[in-house]
Design brief:
heterodimer; A: mainly alpha; 0% strand; elongated; B: alpha/beta; 2 domains; six-stranded mixed sheet; globular; ABC transporter ATP-binding protein (chain B)
């Protein structure tokens, strides 16, 4: 019966952890807003988690768009449908690749940095000293990072998709000779603002929420040793990536699966 | 003499391990009280209990007669504005300059103008001898300077109580002398109540008005420095004289060494 007890203990531990994560989140975001104090902190964090992630997002978006165009062209051209390259690249990026790849890159680039930063603040007693100075670390440290992640993720996703579409144009139109007019006009006629663009944005907002929640909680709850922070950082990337992929299926089923 | 903090019948355990077993102590207002004991005995834990960062299993901790463990979070944060803590690492915010670190509590809790904040910060830095280091980042400070900067931050809001967590640990003799002088001078000048947690016997005997020695989950000795020096408790004497063996054994509890090496053939 030991295995049964182990499963029970693991379940209790995981539920406890989930409960603590929820309490942390509620403590950080449910409070009287302090716009004057918190806006500069949030803008600063948008720079750290958003702007500083731009390079990896732009480069990845460009190459993924280029590869999509190359792969798509070789298939479409055999049916004489290479004119549909534009919508193929755009829809793939806006609906799926944009939100998912951006989220995976965001988890690796910004999520891990958030966990390590908050974990080190805990190790060096900076969080404790905030508490002793009667400043709530949830509102001073966690909340600005949380909102910054939530704001940055949809923006990064849109930038990723836009750059990817341009990358597709470079390969499809400039290199392989697809007509530029049909690349843009068929894309314009096919892509739906609500169904494609906004659903992608909603997906990215959900992914952003999950990633920053996991990242900030793992840092806040980390064991304050070098090993503890290393483990927490790894867990952030692994759990965020799995959560993003799992949620992507659920969201796709909800948005596109039921007609 | 009025007590600022009263601890009654406090028991505390962590991860199933008992740290304190039914202890009581008093921190007198305006005095420097030292809490001493061997490493790992939970001295820092005592400060965290006083600051409301941890909750005891049983017993009570009163700050000005108000129970800290039973306080609501909002009230606890109000009370914490009257207390301050100097952490062992200094715990300066690494993304801010020394000036901004000291200005931080003023900006958070007061509506002072930047001009006034500048004046207060300069005064606090002058008190700890670091006015010239205001522009430096914490990573550019030596260990002793970091602790002095943290001390300036701790007194920024003129608290009633200041808790020092191992203020002398890892300091060279000059830094240690500076810190001893500062703690004493600040206590006298600002009429603070100080709690110093440490195991540096010589330094503490010069600044403390009253001393508690913790060991084996209990208070094994208390009194003025003179009373402590003359204590007839072997445990207290072992601690004061730094003897390697005594009531606190040199060896961590283990089985018979002959048994370990020779096994069952013994």
């Amino acid at each position: 019966m030991n295995w049964l007890a182990s499963i029970g203990a693991l379940t209790i531990a995981k539920m406890g952890s989930f409960g603590r994560a929820t309490l942390m989140l509620l403590g950080a975001i449910i409070a009287k807003p302090q716009f004057i104090k918190n806006t500069p902190l949030t803008i600063m964090q948008i720079y750290v988690v958003g702007v500083q992630s731009l390079l990896i997002i732009v480069v990845s978006g460009l190459f993924i768009g280029m590869v999509m165009a190359l792969q798509g062209y070789t298939i479409l051209v055999s049916y004489g449908a290479e004119g549909s390259l534009g919508p193929m690249v755009a829809l793939s990026l806006l609906r799926e690749l944009g939100p998912v790849v951006t989220a995976l890159l965001f988890a690796g680039r910004a999520g891990s940095a958030l966990t390590a930063e908050i974990g080190l603040m805990k190790t060096t007693e900076q969080l404790s000293s905030l508490e002793m100075m009667a400043v709530d670390p949830l509102r001073r440290i966690i909340a600005p990072r949380f909102w910054a992640g939530m704001i940055s993720m949809p923006m990064l996703t849109l930038i990723f998709s836009a750059v990817g579409i341009l990358g597709g144009h470079v390969v499809g139109v400039d290199w392989l000779g697809v007509d530029s007019g049909s690349y843009w006009s068929i894309m314009q006629a096919t892509v739906d603002w609500d169904k494609d663009v906004m659903n992608g944005v909603i997906k990215s907002a959900v992914f952003g929420f999950v990633i920053v929640w996991i990242a900030t909680y793992k840092g806040y709850d980390s064991i304050p040793t070098s090993e503890g922070i290393s483990k927490a950082t790894t867990q952030t990337v692994v759990y965020s990536s799995l959560a993003v992929l799992g949620l992507d299926f659920v969201l796709t089923a909800l948005m596109f699966g039921i007609e | 003499m009025e007590n600022l903090i009263e601890i009654d019948n406090l028991s505390f355990s962590r991860s199933g391990r008992l740290i304190y077993d039914n202890i009581s102590l008093r921190i007198q207002k305006g005095k420097t009280t030292a809490i001493m004991g061997p490493s790992g005995i939970g001295k820092t834990t005592m400060l965290r209990l006083m600051g409301g960062q941890l909750k005891p299993d049983s017993g009570d901790i009163k700050f000005k007669g108000e129970s800290i463990p039973n306080m609501r979070r909002k009230r606890l944060f109000e009370v914490r504005r009257q207390m301050s803590m100097l952490f062992q690492s200094g715990a300066l915010f690494t993304d801010m300059s020394v000036f901004d670190n000291i200005a931080f509590p003023l900006r958070e809790h007061t509506n002072l103008t930047e001009d006034l904040i500048n004046t207060v910060v300069q005064l606090k830095l002058q008190a700890v001898g670091l006015r010239g280091a205001a522009h430096l980042m914490p990573s550019e400070l030596s260990g002793g300077m970091a602790r002095r900067a943290a001390l300036a931050r701790a007194i920024a809001l003129d608290p009633e109580l200041i808790m020092y967590d191992e203020p002398f640990a890892g300091q060279d003799p000059i830094s240690m002398g500076v810190l001893v002088k500062l703690i004493k001078a600040l206590n006298d000048a600002l009429k603070l109540t100080s709690v110093v947690v440490t195991h540096d016997v010589t330094e503490v005997l010069t600044i403390a008005d009253y001393i508690y020695i913790l060991a084996e989950k209990k208070i094994i000795g208390s009194g003025t420095p003179a009373e402590i020096k003359n204590s007839d408790s072997p445990l207290v004497q072992q601690f004061l004289q730094g003897l390697a063996d005594g009531p606190v054994p040199f060896h961590y509890p283990a089985g018979d060494i002959r048994q370990a090496f020779l096994g069952s053939s013994l």
